Amino acid sequence: MPSPTRLFALAALLVSAAAVVPPAQQGLPGAPDNTTANAPTPDNESIVQTAGQVNQKTSAPVDTPPDASVPPTTVTAVDGTVTNTTIAGASAGTRRRSAGRLGKRQSGYTEIFKPLPASEHDASIEGTAYLTYTVVSNATYDVQACLDFCDTVDGCEFVNLYYEFNNYLLDFVFSQESNLKCAAYGDIHNATEKTNFGGQASYPQVGNETVPLTYITQSSGWAADSLIEPTTPDGYELVFGPTGGANNAPGYMGFAFLDRYDVTACAALCNGRGADPVGGVCQYFNIWRAVVDGIPTTYTCSMYYIPADASTAVNFGQGDLVVTLSRGYSRLSVLPDGGFEGYTACDDFCFTDSYANWIGTSSSGGQDDATVFFFPPYARTGHGSGLLGSADDADSFNGTLTPAQPLTTEKGKSYVVQAFVGNDFSGQPLENTAFVFILWNGVKVGEVTGFQHYTPVQATVTATGKDVLSFTGGDAPAWSFLDDISVFGLLE
Ligand SMILES: *[C@@H]1O[C@H](CO)[C@@H](O)[C@H](O)[C@H]1NC(C)=O
Ligand SMILES: *[C@@H]1O[C@H](CO)[C@@H](O)[C@H](O)[C@H]1NC(C)=O
Ligand SMILES: *[C@@H]1O[C@H](CO)[C@@H](O)[C@H](O)[C@H]1NC(C)=O
Ligand SMILES: *[C@@H]1O[C@H](CO)[C@@H](O)[C@H](O)[C@H]1NC(C)=O
Ligand SMILES: *[C@@H]1O[C@H](CO)[C@@H](O)[C@H](O)[C@H]1NC(C)=O
Ligand SMILES: *[C@@H]1O[C@H](CO)[C@@H](O)[C@H](O)[C@H]1NC(C)=O
Ligand SMILES: *[C@@H]1O[C@H](CO)[C@@H](O)[C@H](O)[C@H]1NC(C)=O
């Protein structure tokens, strides 16, 4: 009869053996973890509160020359903190509207509000998304010249035409010799926003004479009949919009306010957003206009690590704040089937070395060192996942998973590779020797070692065109699962 010690040792062996039934035999992960559960949703209150703190409403200044180039888009708040920063290279606002593109407008303009009679003091618009101004000849009240100007300013949706009197620079310094100002905006404003009555001292003080103050007459507003359809930023696709609903979706990373509705600037913020430790990089953004008490107030850029769509665009506003012009954009991966969802040889449990989209290669003499599984418990999302390390625990050699086709990358462009790696199947300490190397054209650009639940890892790479991505790793029973792999382009 075996000694109790031997029995105990045998039992321990059985238990530990039972704990590592290999993936090929449908073993269950020792430490399952649902990392997409409890993903945060937008903090409406913080957005509403911050919208009450920013003031993005301006008029054409009294003291700067006409025809200044449109400044880059400004970020006026980030995650509830008011800021004043520009997004380098991200703004569409510095480019002229390109003819024949989406930005081309077919239609004309409609008068939103009429000027007051010339004998009365009037007011100019103080509104969001001010872009620049010009002066047009004041021989007549030349509306057409002002509309023509709008056509030349990228992003112009609206112009405010008015006379400004007692502006010394207009009267004596600027070469145009006109006081008929035409201010261009990237959003439409109505007469309730005519709040700038002038009252500024522009003329120099001479002796003890009273300096005449600026005043405004004949202020009219003209809006483009069709809003410009924003150009979809490089590396993204339009998912929905425009609608009156902002997303209320999981995977929310935070928000920024922009001083105008600049989709490309929002894309740049998403690309530049630091990765969430659980959810990874920004993969989706929702841009919308906040209208407070009927007045355009700010432009929200909300970022997500889980792509959303119109089905969750159900936040129509809170209190006085109304959501308008909401659009969702999803980041495009140049890697097809990064989630191994294309492997559908069964509907419950199966695995393979290779299929149409991925190729698994074992070490010489190894067996099933790189495989793809259909089995939801192994997947981070969906039913597919990749496995490195001998699936049946036949050896401890590494394997390599690589997409079946080289990537459709653009030479010279930067990309961020992201993969979710789960090294938890066998638990600790067996997983302590787990490792995954990310290789770009055979060169190691990133790695993960040791026990972890599905966690995102990133590597920034430069493409040479037709690049080869691969993942090498596995030291069974220190298995490594891969899922939700993406290769996202960065803006030029
Ligand atoms: C993981 O969490 C998500 C979101 O809560 C849920 O929809 C999904 O059913 C969960 N999956 C599992 C396997 O528990
Ligand atoms: C933001 O900063 C720029 C440059 O420093 C300054 O000209 C501008 O007035 C600032 N805007 C606000 C709203 O503070
Ligand atoms: C036209 O503008 C010039 C320069 O500001 C000004 O001196 C002149 O009085 C203006 N004429 C009219 C008709 O407003
Ligand atoms: C302005 O100055 C002049 C002479 O310098 C003086 O005669 C006049 O009284 C002053 N007017 C006022 C209102 O102070
Ligand atoms: C201006 O816009 C506000 C908000 O949309 C609206 O309440 C108001 O009626 C508008 N005014 C005019 C003159 O259209
Ligand atoms: C935000 O607003 C949406 C839509 O009104 C609502 O469903 C959601 O619960 C709100 N979220 C929070 C955190 O208050
Ligand atoms: C993978 O295994 C092969 C063959 O055993 C070995 O030559 C190679 O060094 C291993 N690679 C890594 C990254 O460990």
UniProtKB/TrEMBL annotation:
The record's keywords, sorted A to Z, are: Signal
Keyword Glycoprotein found: no
Q: Where is this region: Disordered?
A: 24-45
Kindly indicate where the leader peptide sits in this chain.
1-19
Q: Which domain of life is it from?
A: Eukaryota
In this chain, composition skew of type Polar residues spans: 33-45
Q: Does the keyword Signal apply?
A: yes
| Name under which the protein is recorded | Fruit-body specific protein a
Which species is this record about? Mycena maculata
